[in-house]
TrEMBL record:
GO molecular function: uroporphyrinogen decarboxylase activity
Protein's name according to its UniProt entry: Uroporphyrinogen decarboxylase (URO-D) domain-containing protein
Database matches in Gene3D superfamilies: 3.20.20.210
GO process terms (BP): porphyrin-containing compound biosynthetic process
InterPro entries in the cross-refs: Methanogen_methyltrans, UROD/MetE-like_sf, Uroporphyrinogen_deCOase
Organism from which the protein derives: marine sediment metagenome
Domain Uroporphyrinogen decarboxylase (URO-D): 5-187
Pfam families noted in UniProt: URO-D
Length: 187
């Protein structure tokens, strides 16, 4: 039973030869293949190579296109910092005032930079390991995306002070995540 069959059987409730190992290996994979994390999160070919090598070496049963929580934020226009050997982060928040929501527009993932990089990772995974390893795509949850755009503390205050704004922003974030997820599925 290969990894794909193992995970598929487990999800269907069928017997498996062992419990699937579904560890997410982001920073570990970069270290294992000896590349700076910045390169891992900005070059889909490096991300794919690191995942496949780690899955083969350590018995991990799933490759993943996850790398950091800032792909969508970057493509929205947020100021994302890419440390050499750490996870990217937003230097400041894109939506500081309520009117700033006008800055945030849903993007076509195929015409973006970082979302497209993840889609290309899924495509490359499909070309190399389809049917052997299951492929985990990734989108941020709408609430996590909102926290990245607004800041978690400010967002929590908004739940009380301006719930309509929260709903509007959550709808925008959810629309973006659905588009991004569908493109990964199509890849």
């Amino acid at each position: 039973m290969n990894s794909y069959e193992r995970v598929k059987n487990r999800l269907k409730g069928n017997p498996v030869d062992k419990i699937p190992n579904l560890n997410i290996i982001m920073t570990f994979a970069a270290k294992y293949i000896g590349v700076p994390y910045k390169k891992y999160v900005t070059d889909f070919k490096v991300l794919v190579e690191g995942n496949i090598l780690c899955c083969e070496k350590f018995g991990i049963d799933m490759v993943s296109a996850i790398s950091d929580p800032c792909r969508e934020l970057f493509d929205f226009g947020a100021n994302v910092v890419f440390p050499e050997n750490d996870v990217p982060y937003c230097k400041d928040f894109l939506i500081k005032e309520y009117v700033d929501i006008k800055k945030v527009k849903v993007k076509d993932p195929l015409k973006s930079m970082r979302m497209l990089d993840r889609i290309k990772a899924v495509e490359l995974f499909n070309g190399r390991i389809k049917g052997y390893f299951p492929i985990l795509g990734w989108v941020e949850g709408a609430l996590a995306e909102l926290a990245g755009l607004r800041g978690i503390n400010t967002m929590m205050l908004d739940f009380y002070d301006n719930p309509d704004f929260i709903v509007e922003l959550l709808e925008l974030c959810a629309e973006q995540e659905i588009k991004f997820a569908l493109e990964q599925i199509n890849a």
